[in-house]
Design the sequence.
């Protein structure tokens, strides 16, 4: 059974991507039925219900909702600094992590607009001492994560304690003699690429990255509270990162990679992000036609099942509506920024909490609530908010109430997310309860049976675990089954 257990662990890594794609397909399919799509009059109490669980003496979150330039909602919860009891506000500066990439990409596009570089400029054109392999890597490849550069995080010494900076990332790339794949041939998310882009900005402009961003983007837009992290330089109104451990929080603010600027080093607030959103809408930095290119992926076809990435923005289509977004994950922080260009909608939420992916689900839910019925409203955020405040039983009750109303989208992930949370927190009995309920609601859900099997395995109930593993095995999607088939057609 242990061998089978290990096999399923490998499989679930593959299926994480599959479930995401399938969830998007489910959303698209169900969203086309307007009778099953939630429509509403803009009621702030719904947003309050989603965020209220962040209030009190805990690490915080700040968010803003904008449509057509109007601030529809803006609020902060919790603390920016628990030790010094500093409450989070709209001016609190959070480390944006990978949401920084939209700013770095804009700086590159501004330099291209000024004809100082081009999308076809190669690394060997910009850096005279870059190895020959850089002759195949263009600025465009870096922007859309198709460069093939080695991940600098994989090149760091195992016991390293000092922080790596962008120039050293560039040096590490220069010490390599090849890429992971032929540049341009495939997509692979690359923090190395965006660290190199920050060095390109410095080289081409003649200014340090932080100074260029301040002089050419932040100050012109009035973003006076936004900063690029520089070691030893004080960031005003700074939030410190935390990891939740049960009901307490442990400070986890920095890591060896937290000082890299181009891929994740910008600190900003929701008050300043409003100005950024306005600048993008009104094309204050580059002409609209040039910014539109930032929102076009390499394969920008809504029906193609490929990773879509523009210039610092991920791109999705739901019911034919383009959503441009980017999350930011780093030690102690989780952030989410989302724009729907055709409707002028923008959502941004910054939190000083580690792995707080709930704000991503909240952002997508709020976008749907403001879409006038064009986007499906996933019930996950509402059920999850009840769970965080009132526990498992109340979450199941809320799920049943929502199902009764019939105007939200319910998927296997609605309760599966909670089951995973409980399992991670080692609350096995509660996890079993909610996952058992989910298998009854979605009897074809491979992942629900798999997670339920894990619960029984952790609870030393081997017979039940074996039964659930076998059931999960029968539910492996056909598209992945062949991965584990031998020549005799049986799953190994």
Sequence:
């Amino acid at each position: 059974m242990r061998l089978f257990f290990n096999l399923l662990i490998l499989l679930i890594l593959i299926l994480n991507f599959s479930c995401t794609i399938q969830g998007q397909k489910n959303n698209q399919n169900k969203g086309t039925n307007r009778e099953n799509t939630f429509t509403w009059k803009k009621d702030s109490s719904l947003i309050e219900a989603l965020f209220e669980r962040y209030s009190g003496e805990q690490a915080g979150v700040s968010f803003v909702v904008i449509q057509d330039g109007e601030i529809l909602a803006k609020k902060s919860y919790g603390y920016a600094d628990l030790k010094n009891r500093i409450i989070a506000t709209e001016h609190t500066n959070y480390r944006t992590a990978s949401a920084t990439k939209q700013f770095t990409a804009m700086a590159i596009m501004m330099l291209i607009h000024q004809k100082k570089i081009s999308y076809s400029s190669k690394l060997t054109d910009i850096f005279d001492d870059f190895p020959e392999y850089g002759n195949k890597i263009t600025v465009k490849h870096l922007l859309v994560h198709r460069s093939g550069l080695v991940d600098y995080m994989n090149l760091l010494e195992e016991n390293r304690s000092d922080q790596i900076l962008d120039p050293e990332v560039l040096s590490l790339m220069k010490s390599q003699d090849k890429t992971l794949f032929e540049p341009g041939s495939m997509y692979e998310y690359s923090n190395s690429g965006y660290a190199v882009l920050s060095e390109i900005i410095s080289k081409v402009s003649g200014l340090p990255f932080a100074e260029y961003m301040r002089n050419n983007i932040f100050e012109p837009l009035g973003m006076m509270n936004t900063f690029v992290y520089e070691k030893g330089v004080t960031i005003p109104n700074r939030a410190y990162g935390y990891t939740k451990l049960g009901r307490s929080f442990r400070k986890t603010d920095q890591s060896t990679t937290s000082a890299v600027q181009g891929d994740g080093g910008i600190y900003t607030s929701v008050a300043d992000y409003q100005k950024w959103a306005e600048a993008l809408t009104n094309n204050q930095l580059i002409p609209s036609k040039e910014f539109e290119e930032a929102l076009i992926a390499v394969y920008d076809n809504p029906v193609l099942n490929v990773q879509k990435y523009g210039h610092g923005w991920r791109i999705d289509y739901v019911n034919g509506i383009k959503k441009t977004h980017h999350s930011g994950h780093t030690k102690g922080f989780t952030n989410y920024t989302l724009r729907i260009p055709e409707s002028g909608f923008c959502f941004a939420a910054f939190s000083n909490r580690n792995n707080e992916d709930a704000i991503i689900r909240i952002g997508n839910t709020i976008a749907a609530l403001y879409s006038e019925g064009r986007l499906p409203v996933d019930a996950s955020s509402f059920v999850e908010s009840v769970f965080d405040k009132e526990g498992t039983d109340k979450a199941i009750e809320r799920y049943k109430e929502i199902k009764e109303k019939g105007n939200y989208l319910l998927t296997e992930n609605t309760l599966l997310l909670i089951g995973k949370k409980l399992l991670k927190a080692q609350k096995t009995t509660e996890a079993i309860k909610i996952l058992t309920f989910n298998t009854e609601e979605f009897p074809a859900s491979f992942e629900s049976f798999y997670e339920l099997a894990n619960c029984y395995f952790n609870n030393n109930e081997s017979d039940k675990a074996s039964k659930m593993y076998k059931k999960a095995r029968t539910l492996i999607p056909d598209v992945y089954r062949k991965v584990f088939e031998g020549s005799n057609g049986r799953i190994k």
About this structure: The chain has a mean pLDDT of 88. Residues 79-351 form a domain with the Beta-lactamase fold (CATH 3.40.710.10).
